[in-house]
Amino acid sequence: MKGRNVARNTFKIRFYTKDANKNGLLPLMVRITVNGERSDFRAHDEIPPELWLPKAGMVAGRTTLANQINNNIRNITANLTNIYNRLFLAGEHITAEKIRNEHLGRTHSNHTLLAIFREHNDREQKLFDVGRRAKSTFNRYLLTYRRLEEYLKTEYHLTDIAMNELNYDFIYGFSTFLYSKYKVERNTAIKLIQIFRKIVLLAKRNDIIRKDPFEGFSLALDKVDPNFLDEPELQALMQRTFYNAPHLELTRDKFIFCCFTGLAFCDVEKLQKSEIKEFFDGQLWILTERQKNHIKVKVPLLDAANVIYHKYLHSRNDELLFPSSNHQNINRHLKTIALYCNIQKDMTFHMVRHTFGTTVTTLHGVDLREVSKMMGHTNTKMTEHYARVLDKKLSSTMIELNKHTSSLQKSFQI
Predict the structure, then answer these.
(1) How far apart are CA 276 and CA 255, in angstroms?
(2) Which residues touch 39 (CB under 8 Å, ≥6 apart)?
(3) How does pLDDT run across 43-92, given as a tens digit for each residue?
(4) Per-residue exposure over 287-300, b if at least 16 CB sit within 10 Å of its own CB, e if not
(5) Both ends of the chain: CA-CA distance in Å?
């Protein structure tokens, strides 16, 4: 909105440096301040630490390098001042970010990180609305957007940034921001950064940028041993009752049901009564589709799951088998349940997939390919993350192998 400025704005330009990069040089930064509002951007110069004069905002000496950098500083100062004066004389509303964007030639471009991210999330919202995107996945998109928005505001004093301004330092800085501000583990940070990279690759495929700024940045996840319940812990959970705490009883029932079916939280939340039916063998099976990858799964109901199914089948006038629950609340309830059952593990609902893959199936001799099919995986490599070979299972397998090969082994002579 245009309007003649009655009084001249406070306008300042400051040059400073960020911490040394991997080459030991200081990246030169420019800060514009208008009426107390700041906007920063990175200049193209990198300065040897011993040459930088912080108070003067210049480089010491008269070498070719010093003259080149100081000339660039003077040119940037002159151009920013000219932009400010022109906007002031034209009666424009002046902001630090507006001056910055005009200096960088980005005033008419909508190819910015958060703008593209918003378009992406709008499309994902439509997929989520029709059940084609898992809630947990969609929520991670929203969370990553908020973290990037906060990072830009906190570290760069910007509301957005042009895609072609993204570089390794920006990405590394974002990872540092996640670690320092939110104290997250590496895998948690990397999963958000992977979503960030998805937006960058989207821009690259649309010819908005040519180079991937993630080049050289490691997105490898740390290997972790996932938690699962062993047989004594699962039995302790099954034998504990919570009649006076309906919310804990519901949480326990859902947890046990999924331990014996392999369903994820998002899948059991949408499980309909009509998706449990008699199959070719006359037994009850779950015939549904995974929300995460839309792969059809077929899981026979084991006795424990069958008991829970019949407990809730006629408990409410609803097509859904279970009352809906909030993921955060149910994980909080599991912490309470673990205390009651003396389970010394950090219980979360995701443990059900690992418990099904390890304690309930693999430990009792179910073939990995069959486990993979029931869990809705596209290959057994994915299942290996959930189905661990325990020492107990290995021992029983080798005892059986020893029996089956006894005649062969007896022929051995020393």
Answers:
(1) 18
(2) 31, 32, 95, 96, 97, 99, 100, 156, 157, 158
(3) 989 999 999 999 999 999 999 999 999 999 999 999 999 999 998 888 87
(4) ebebbeeeeebebe
(5) 97
| Contacts with 263 (C-beta within 8 Å, 6 or more apart), sequence order | 257, 271, 286, 288, 299, 352
Other CB atoms within 10 Å distance of the CB of residue 1: 4
Element (H, E) at 254: helix 246-259
Q: Which residues contact 114 (CB under 8 A, 6 or more apart)?
A: 145, 148, 149, 152, 159, 160, 161
Of 241, 364, 249, 252, nearest to 302 by C-alpha is: 364
In 48-173, beta strands by DSSP E: 52-53, 58-59
CA dist 369 and 366 (Å) reads 8
What's the token pair of residue 227?
């938690």
DSSP state of 356: I
Tell which residue, 184, 115, 114, has the closest CA to residue 151.
114
| Structure token digits, residue 278 | 């008699």
3-class DSSP state for residue 299? strand
Each residue's pLDDT tens digit, 203-235:
999 888 888 999 999 999 887 767 889 999 999
